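Input record (Table S2, row 321):
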Amino acid sequence: MLIKRHRYTEIPGSEITPRHMVESRRLFMQQLAAGALTASGLVNNALSAESAARARLNATANPAFTAKDTPTKFEDASSYNNFYEFGMDKSDPAMYAGTLKTRPWTVKIDGEVKKPQTMDIDALMKLAPLEERLYRLRCVEGWSMAIPWIGYSLSELIRKLEPTGNAKFIEFTSLADPAQMRGVGSRVLDWPYVEALRIDEANHPLSLLCVGMYGQTLLNQNGAPLRLVVPWKYGFKSAKSIVRIRFTEHQPKTAWNKTAPEEYGFYSNVNPEVAHPRWSQATERRIGEDGLFNRKRKTLMFNGYPEVASLYSGMDLKKFF
Ligand code: MTE
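Output record (MTE complex):
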């Protein structure tokens, strides 16, 4: 992603490391001293301590939405992340997102809907049966993963809120709290992180309101407690840690598009034929599968979800990139 300026508020590490991580690190050091762990075991152990704090979720696998791909290892999906609110390095979210408090958590729903309201996350999680769906996630930077997400189609929520006839778009706003998110002090983006979809895109059954992954509630670094997953679009359209859902008549201004409109369009459909100004989008590297010296795999149109093509019929996808 485009990095314009790089400036963080300086917070001493000791102040931001969550207590449970400090404690689990202490335990590792004791185990290491006792010879119970190898050095490489440390990282995996840290991640399993993290995931133990998550709740198991009962979700039914939906074969209609299960990619044939090999699922990416949980360790990779939870340690190689983009979540700029916690820093710009891939390892920053896993290291620093422990400061995010995900309960209590409410989502404000407003704009062009007949039933504007503030919903509690626990009520949102029960709004429709949870499904597990293995989706490909393709980042505009040229890497990809296949993640077993848990959630339900966003259309289920939209239907219950009863959009007015003026609702043409839906805007999603992420939390931006500098007290919990050390990266929000940086000027890399104009916070809060905002993303949006056209209402027919949002209503496509593939668009997932996501509350979990790998059988558990979401990890903070992956966007707990609520995120979007729109698998035919570049990963940055899938906003994390959502606190507001607004229905609008006009196309909302989105964070990356405001920062660099020539690089990040509103649609951002995965399209191997339209290059990003600085990166070809023709190929990608699957994290954990394609080594640095392997040939990269070909990127598929709409990330391999051709069923969405009709949403864009008649549109010039070079212009509406
Ligand atoms: N949402 C917020 N709020 N902040 C972010 O920095 N990064 C986006 C997207 N959602 C981002 C975000 C990008 S660029 C990608 S590729 C995906 O989250 C990464 O999701 P993952 O870390 O769970 O794989």
